[in-house]
Write a structure and sequence with these properties.
single chain; three-stranded antiparallel β-sheet; two-stranded antiparallel ribbon; about 40% helix; globular; DNA-binding protein
């Protein structure tokens, strides 16, 4: 059956009939989620839970379900919007639906969507403000505005048409605050001691580090190479490295990324100083994931044979195995039969549902292989289908228990590292009920109070964005390097302090140059005499006169455009006067070049301007001479 996407309401049918038709359309004609949802249930696992506002996240009770007069519309709206423009996180849309349902019940006593009015929407945002604040409240208001626009445009309202705007403004952080007053800056940027510590750990020889140390320090090193999210690093393909020559023929090194939040596939170019770090981190992660990727590749291509790793017994597929051979087939390097017996007795290949039989001759490689293949991940062979990364080509893939010093690595099982797997070994607070040393405590890096240092995965992203702002990278380039769709989001990652900006201004070498002074027009005959006293090269010079500026003020681009059609006033000049003007232009060029060398801010733009002017004039003189 063809999946019809667009629903068209009919004005002659009225609001109630249009809503009924919309629900039927979404329930019966849309195919999205058809294999994973039961329309009649209030919980669509992994998609949305249609529960009332402020009913927690616990067990779903019948009284928690959205109102019977509202829930079918809510389900239809979610399914329809996801069919048109799917998003990963439906939290904002569900917030808006819950707040609107509550407002309809309070204002109208019944939660029919066709009763929505300006008053109801105002009440909905008022209700939302009781539970949410800051940008979460803004998001709820934004989704309410979209929802109101939808139901109005589809003629689902008894009042006809309404126009409602979100009254909540998004919070924008103030940049360039003093360091002492910028609490957010201290929280978002990493501790310098912890950065130096993780760098020292990463620099050690492989044999000095555990596999967990190698994995954690390598992933963090990649986070420091370009502004990235931890999910993007963990989903990198093993063949992510790329080298290309730029326009000047210089080889550049980058990583193939798939940036989340709508940006998509891209290449993140790594600064030259960080290229050796990135290469070392990638090399270590490839080595750690080698066996797991080989295992995944084996399962992709060989459906009926056992994966032969380096300690797998060399026997036929259907030959009965002894207890020690079973241990070796599973990758456990034990030789004592009693130890093997106890290990197999507590080993489960189905997640704990049943345990292996420790008797000799009970299993063959083929039987073990069939049991193992049944427990492959549900989405196998895709490690991340959206990013087109297979398990067999996942850089950060591991074997189960590979980084656990207290357990044998299960070479027969693959494990996909998660955010928590990475963060719990580098952050300060261990998960509830666990006590272990993080990477800093293991290597003796403690703060002044004797507590282990810590880092968070998103801190490098904030740090690199701040450094990019300090280095005067353009807003567009920062957004592109960070894999960010909206340039305005850059400000949330810019933690440049007031003190840093003052130091930057002090280092601009502004000097005592005159600032944007304009002189009277001078005839070209007196240009040579009047310009002898100039103390900077930020000058627009024409046959009719000149205008003095400061290096801070960029040169006028229109002058260059008009010069292409001929320098106005140059026809009245004789050869000597023309040479005099060009001589002065070359003098300005040299003066500006010296200013660039001495570090005057903005002088580089004027140097480029004078070079272009001289090039145009010399070309025009050459053309006139050939006529």
């Amino acid at each position: 059956m063809k999946n019809v996407i667009v629903f068209k309401s009919k004005s002659e049918l009225g609001a109630v009939k249009n809503i009924d038709d919309f629900v039927i359309f979404c329930k019966e004609k849309l195919t999205l989620y058809e294999d994973v949802i039961d329309w009649n249930k209030s919980e669509w696992k992994g998609i949305a839970i249609f529960r009332k506002l402020n009913t927690g996240k616990g067990i779903m009770r019948e009284e928690y379900t959205l109102d019977a007069n509202f829930i079918n519309f809510a389900k239809s709206y979610i399914r329809y919007q996801q069919s048109l423009n799917p998003v990963k996180n439906l939290g904002g849309k569900m917030m808006a639906l819950r707040c609107l349902e509550e407002a309809l019940l309070q204002v109208c006593q019944k939660a029919y969507i066709y009763n929505t009015t300006i008053i109801v929407l105002d009440e909905a945002i008022k209700i939302a403000s009781q539970y949410y604040d800051n940008n979460v409240l803004y998001t709820c208001g934004y989704e309410l505005e979209r929802l109101s626009s939808f139901i109005s445009g589809q003629q689902f309202l008894k009042i006809g048409i309404l126009s409602w705007k979100n009254p909540i403004k998004p919070n924008t952080r103030n940049n360039y605050l003093p360091e002492k007053k910028d609490e957010e800056r201290r929280n978002k940027l990493p501790d310098e001691r912890a950065l130096l510590a993780i760098a020292e750990i990463f620099s050690r020889q492989d044999e000095e580090l555990s596999e967990r140390d190698l994995f954690t320090s390598s992933v963090f090193a990649l986070l420091m190479c370009s502004p990235s999210r931890i999910s993007e690093i963990l989903a990198l393909p093993a063949d992510c490295e790329i080298t290309r020559n730029d326009k000047d023929g210089v080889e550049r090194y980058g990583l193939r990324f798939y940036s989340v939040k709508g940006y998509g596939a891209t290449i993140k170019w790594i600064p030259d100083v960080m290229v050796p770090v990135a290469r070392k981190a990638i090399s270590r992660l490839r080595r750690l994931s080698k066996n797991a990727r080989s295992l995944a590749r084996w399962h992709e291509s060989s459906s009926d044979k056992f994966y032969r790793h380096d300690i797998c017994p060399t026997v036929r597929e259907d030959e009965p195995l002894g207890v020690v051979q079973v241990c070796h087939a599973l990758g456990y390097p034990l030789t004592d039969k009693k130890q093997c017996f106890n290990k197999i007795k507590c080993t489960s290949l189905d997640g704990g549902g049943s345990f292996l039989n420790p008797a000799d001759g009970h299993y063959t490689l083929r039987v073990l292989g069939q049991m193992i293949r049944k427990k492959l991940p549900a989405d196998f062979p895709w490690f991340d289908k959206e990013k087109s990364v297979r398990y067999s080509n996942a850089l950060c893939l591991l074997n189960q228990h590979q980084c656990n010093d207290a357990k044998f690595t299960a070479r027969y099982a693959i494990y996909r590292p998660t955010y928590s797997f990475f963060s719990q070994y580098i952050e300060k607070i261990p998960p509830k009920g666990q006590r272990y040393k993080n990477i800093f405590e293991r290597h003796g890096y403690l703060d002044s109070e004797g507590k282990p240092l810590s880092l968070r995965s998103h801190q490098p992203r904030h740090l690199l964005n701040t450094l990019a702002h300090l280095g005067e990278l353009s807003e567009l380039d920062i957004a592109k390097w960070s894999g960010r769709v909206c340039v305005t989001q850059n400000r949330n990652y810019n933690h440049t302090s007031q003190e840093q900006m003052m130091l930057k201004v002090a280092g601009m070498r502004l000097g005592n140059n005159r600032y944007c002074h304009h002189t009277d027009s001078h005839s070209s005959l007196n240009v040579g005499e009047d310009m002898d006293t100039l103390n900077n090269g930020a000058v627009h010079l024409t046959p009719n006169g000149y205008c003095i500026h400061d290096y801070l003020i960029p040169p006028c681009k229109k002058i260059l455009k008009t010069m292409e059609f001929g320098w106005v006033g140059s026809d009245a000049m004789n050869e000597q006067q023309r040479e005099q003007v060009i001589k002065k232009l070359r003098s300005l060029h040299q003066m500006t070049k010296q200013a660039v060398h001495e570090g005057f801010y903005g002088a580089d733009k004027w140097l480029s301007y004078h070079e272009n002017v001289l090039s145009i004039l010399e070309r025009q003189i050459k053309i006139k001479g050939s006529i």
